[in-house]
Amino acid sequence: MMEVFWIRGYEGAQLSDLTAAAGINPPSFYAAFGSKEAAFCEAVDHYLVTVGEGSRLALETPPTLRQALRNMFLTSIEAALAHQPGGCMLILGVVNCLPGNEQARLYLKQARHKIVEAITARIERGRHDGDIPAETDIGQMAAFFYGITQAISLQARDGSSREELIAMIDFALRSLDTVVVTG
Predict the structure, then answer these.
(1) If we measure between CA atoms, which residue out of 5, 151, 156, 2 comes closest to residue 79?
(2) Contact 142, 59 (CB under 8 A)
(3) Do residues 176 and 65 make contact, with C-beta atoms less than 8 angstroms apart?
């Protein structure tokens, strides 16, 4: 079911798609999940510990901030290109929604916030390790690099190639050479 939500988004995923993916009938779907929203939240959680885990590990492992960010972006590119029409489930799962689906949007917002927290933590580690100046505005930098992950998702959805996305991240990483510091 995760893939149905990933490909179609929350509102685009129909009960018939979800039951077919799960191999169950509608009454069994509701018995198992309770609601479409609950199934979506479970799919988001599954995405975080499977697909999303790669990005988290990519941030933690390399010795330098630049390598960690590059690896995170490359992992994001692979995830964004893994399915057609492309993109990241966390970014595109609920972009706009009907008022009745606000809880699903908020659930994704919370999941995305965890990504920003992980990027922030890695940048702080990079500052501690001397990869960037002590005066670096960590929040601004984390927001910028998180924005690049969003751009990867949207551009993958619009058909950008792996090579085009890699060129974009290489350009973004050059910003580390001219780090914005608070004054």
Answers:
(1) 156
(2) no
(3) yes
**In whole angstroms, what is the distance from residue 39 CA to residue 21 CA?**
12
Q: Which of 66, 63, 78, 65 shows the shortest CA–CA distance to 152?
A: 78
Contacts by 116-122 with C-beta closer than 8 Å and gap 24+? 116/142, 116/143, 116/146, 118/55, 118/56, 118/59, 119/59, 119/69, 119/72, 119/145, 119/146, 121/59, 122/59, 122/60, 122/65, 122/68, 122/69
Q: Is the dihedral of CA 94, 97, 101, 106 positive or negative?
A: positive
Identity of the residue numbered 153: S
For 14-64, what is each residue's pLDDT tens digit? 999 999 999 999 999 999 999 999 999 999 999 999 988 898 899 988 889
| DSSP secondary structure letter of residue 177 | G
- Whether this model's pTM surpasses 0.85: yes
b or e along 89-126 (b: 16 or more beta carbons within 10 Å of the residue's beta carbon)? Answer: bbbbbbeebeeebeebbebbeebbeebbebbbebbbeb
The tokens describing 106, both together, are 């908020």
